[in-house]
Amino acid sequence: MTETILVTGATGFIGSALCRALLARGHPVRALHRKTSSLTALQDLSVELVVGDILEKDTLPSAMEGVDLVFHTAAVSDYWRHPDLVLRTAVEGTRNVMQAAFEAGVQRAVLTSSLAARGIPAPGELLTEDHNFNISPDRFLYGYAKYQAEIEAFQVAARGLEVVIVNPSAVLGPGDFNRPDSIVTEAARGWGFFWMDGGVNIVYIDDVVTGHIAAAFQGRAGERYILGGENLTLRECFTTVTEIAGKRPPWLKIPGWIIEPAAKIVEWLQPLVQLPFDSSQLRLSRHYIYCDTSKARRELDFPEPRPFRQVVKVTYDWYREQGMI
What we know:
Elements: E1 4-8, H1 13-24, E2 29-33, E3 48-51, H2 61-64, E4 67-72, H3 83-103, E5 108-112, H4 141-157, E6 162-168, E7 170-172, H5 183-188, E8 194-195, E9 199-204, H6 205-217, E10 224-227, E11 230-233, H7 234-244, E12 252-253, H8 256-269, H9 279-284, H10 294-300, H11 308-321
Parallel strand pairs: 1-2, 1-4, 2-3, 4-5, 5-6, 6-10, 7-9, 8-12
Antiparallel strand pairs: 9-11
């Protein structure tokens, strides 16, 4: 049994699911949240609520008292809506959390990064933990921000804090109260009629949480672990989601030459219209961003990918129960 475990970003999708799993394992959990954060995702959990902000470092020392393990999950997930906050939250926020943990004598910190921080694989290649970010920052600010956050974490680790990094791929599952525009809800609203060449890796939220906890107790300090699910073509992905949502399968293929002009239009529309995606996501859709999870399976006993259809079904049912679709 550990002492109190601190979770930053505790009101978010991964953070709240992590709090739930840690409590189920008998760990006392302290949940860091901003004053303005909705507590819906934590409403039935017996966590210790602590108000703080990772961008206000003076609020962090008290949150670290009596803590020997920190999960840093806080991030700007809807990055296309808040581009001005993405890099600052990732870099400055991670620096503040890791520094506060080090100064408080915390033994270990797990940083929630992203597969996006590994960049784009070469054709026919799978992303591994050894890949480095290889995209222009202005083409994919979120991935660049996550990569820079890893650098910040390892800089503090060099001073003595044990740091383990996990890189989830696209996460799907029940409990995402803050994301009403996931691939499941968009398909249910009729936005799954098109497809393009490209591929994605999607992982179930429970598996991501399992990977986080294993990284904390089994992972090697100074290492990264990719937490992924099935590698799917976009057509396979959209077909499965539309079938479960009771919609017509994708019938319109978007040719590759349209992507760049469409991305330019999205950039023009972004300040005027709220969209469920941005130009960087559109450009990345042309690539097969598949990953290899063998390191996590080998060292963390990370599970084999759950069938994507099963993941979509439980997610769809949850959104229906919440009245979000």
